[in-house]
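Purpose: get a first structural picture of the assembly so the mutagenesis plan has something to point at.
Setup: two entries, given in the order below. No constraints added.
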Amino acid sequence: MYIGKIGEHGLIRRIQSKFPQKDQTVVLGIGDDAAIIKPAPGKLLLLSTDTLREDIHFKKRYCTFYDIGWKAVAVSISDIAAMGGMPRHLLLSIAVPRKTSVKDLDRVLTGVADITAKYGVTLIGGNVSRSKGGVTIDTTVMGELTRGSGVARSGASIGDLIYVTGIIGSSAIGLSLLKTSSDIDSAPYIPKGSFVADHLRPAPRVREGIILGTNRLATAMIDISDGLLADLGHICEQSNAGAYIHSHLIPLPKIPNRLKRRLAKGPLFYALYGGEDYELLFTIRRKDKGRLEAICKREGLKVAFIGEIVPGEKGITIVGEDGVERKMHTGGYDHFRNHRGKVWLERFQ
Amino acid sequence: MYIGKIGEHGLIRRIQSKFPQKDQTVVLGIGDDAAIIKPAPGKLLLLSTDTLREDIHFKKRYCTFYDIGWKAVAVSISDIAAMGGMPRHLLLSIAVPRKTSVKDLDRVLTGVADITAKYGVTLIGGNVSRSKGGVTIDTTVMGELTRGSGVARSGASIGDLIYVTGIIGSSAIGLSLLKTSSDIDSAPYIPKGSFVADHLRPAPRVREGIILGTNRLATAMIDISDGLLADLGHICEQSNAGAYIHSHLIPLPKIPNRLKRRLAKGPLFYALYGGEDYELLFTIRRKDKGRLEAICKREGLKVAFIGEIVPGEKGITIVGEDGVERKMHTGGYDHFRNHRGKVWLERFQ
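Result (structure tokens, whole complex):
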């Protein structure tokens, strides 16, 4: 059955029934002109919006409708995580061609339902509309922030140490594998922890962000969506600083031999230029190193030291185990330019 | 110059420079992972999102880039108005083809700047992305609501009186004129108060909504976006009620003779089925009639009584000056169905 059969308001009722409202902070949820929420007393409010567009951010050839729903919400939750905040409420805007089946739309909603349940986020409203192009999902996530614990991109100072959470590069490897796979359609099961899962169903680092924020550890923070280098570039630009990175300290994924021949590049390439890891890249004061390590141990957080902040005029330098320093262009993904700084990398791979 | 030249981050910087941040409630504005705002103490928060898509909601043939910017924000502000709230902050998500000129993008931003200035709304963030289809603008508006003054769609009771603000139908007449015009491209000047201006640059009824909300006059309220009948249908459905409307009391636009022959229908058709008026449709308790009239006189609000709420099983009835009652299907615009209840209307025109 196509969604044209149930109509716009049938669709909204369908969404309403799939997302029961039991959040005490929601005064009025889905189905009116606007949602009403009660802001948490004394807290600041975080707001972020992001979009997932067919054939720009994903291709249906290697993405299920479930994945699209999951990821559309994940990218906005990750932005809240990158500020040190707790995601709380979601607005979901879906645009689909009229000839979309109700079943496929339900799959999108199940993806949204699963990730919102996992992160304790409540869907409070949104919008459904017809699209003449492909599927587009826009998400806006509202989050709470404890005063004094927010972390902007602009707070890094010379001498600060640079860290990342988790492993960097898996998502881009997953995408690369998906692009070269011929049997994706017949593989509905995506093993958890696989490169493909890392790409299609990222798990934003909300807990990590809050711990780094509330303990006043992170001086600057960003989620890695454009690639480690590009996102480091954003921190450097907004902090008027440069960075010195030890490439051998970047936590890279181990690539099994059977996959190696399917990948054009080594893991460092994907880590630096890939993006969509949704890990956190952050800086701390040098004196907080011990405290960070103690807190990470206590809380079971996996973080890795990868370099330090230097004066802005030095730009971004990467040093390899061979001791050779390379001045970097930040590269990374730019929607309108689509160039990536690939020059020096040939030498690394 | 195409926007591909300045890139995604050039674009964001361009937006930043056009929207200086001087709003005290904005702790962190454009350019980070998320915006941070300080919610007004003691107030509730309103959230609404809407989308404007090329060839679905507008065609570039009869719409300037300025109009697109203006209207994309207007539709979300109107949702806040329909709850009785004050719009405060805006997230703007723009998706455009790579071959969009910087000049055209600037026109969109000027439209956004003008309407946000008019309504005291601050742009705090958003998103820019490439589109493989046409131009799409998504807006999310956050508003403040004084406790106890919010008005949902669901609060109408049997016996309540039904009112509208302003004149209904002008926007659809404007659209109809635009569709049949051959010389739109050569007419950059749109006279204020014209049908075309009503369609392209609607002025949401924020002040009206707040007055109706804070004085606890409106029991149910909605903005007219789908058409008077469809939006009345939403109030009736969510209030489990029906409605009895006097068609001759609906405030209709006067159509000059020179335009009459260019329009296929009479003004009542456009009022009932047209939509995009962004006037408010609301109900009040019968006993509040005198108080409403006094407040409207004092505040200079133009409202018109058009009917009353009846039991749900009676559905929606319209009575003309001829005394003939007609049972209505709510019709109006449905994105996926695209049918409008046109049957009986032939008799009215």
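Confidence is low (pLDDT under 50) at residues 338-349 of chain A.
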